[in-house]
């Protein structure tokens, strides 16, 4: 199986676990299966340190206009997501990725950014519980699943808040490389992955709707 490239988006006041959880999943996926499933890097609008929530300083590997074209773009949330909702550079960056046919993994209030980019219209969606009232005012014909943890639309996978991004990343590993690889990835991380099956409540495959 081919190795896929993952870009993890960073911005000021990004929620740490929103990006770090999926980063860890994709970085170690396949380790116990003897596979290199993903190459993972971080990207930001500018090539300079980004202060995440709690003033954690991160050095992005690429700027938007310098990155290799990824197969998957992780769009995290956090307090800074509201600002990115009106950042033309970030919105266009996400739109370009989607137009190329790439997969978007939206974590937490990253859903607000994806919706602001005009990519969530008519789709099934979830976000952090604190972002639900705002999400309801955005986009067109959004099918909001407030109790879901992972919602798969095919080209865009949404997760609920913070730690749910780790579940969504594992879900995507299973979708792309098989459940056994995802289970072994969770085992390596010693992560109690409880949302392993599409049940129509916590994990929704909207592609079948």
Q: Which second-level CATH architecture applies? A: 3-Layer(aba) Sandwich
Q: Please trace the helix and strand order, writing H or E for each element.
A: EHEEEEEHHEHEHEEEHHE
Distance between the termini: 29 Å
Q: How many domains in all?
A: 1
| DSSP strand content | 15-25%
CATH topology: Rossmann fold
Q: Compute the number of helices.
A: 7
As laid out across the biggest beta sheet, the strand order is: 5-2-1-6-7-11-10-12
Explain this structure:
The structure is a single chain. With 209 residues, this protein is of the alpha/beta class. It has a single domain (4-208), classed as Rossmann fold. Helices cover 31% and strands 20% of the residues. It has helices spanning 16-28, 81-84, 88-99, 110-116, 132-135, 164-177, 179-189; strands spanning 4-9, 38-44, 50-51, 57-58, 62-63, 72-75, 103-106, 124-125, 143-144, 150-152, 156-159, 203-205. Strands 5-2-1-6-7-11-10-12 form an 8-stranded mixed sheet, with helices on both faces. A two-stranded antiparallel sheet has the order 3-4. A two-stranded parallel ribbon has the order 8-9. A hairpin with a 5-residue loop joins strand 3 (50-51) and strand 4. Helix 1 (16-28) runs parallel beside helix 6 and helix 6 packs antiparallel against helix 7. The chain is globular and about 40 Å long.
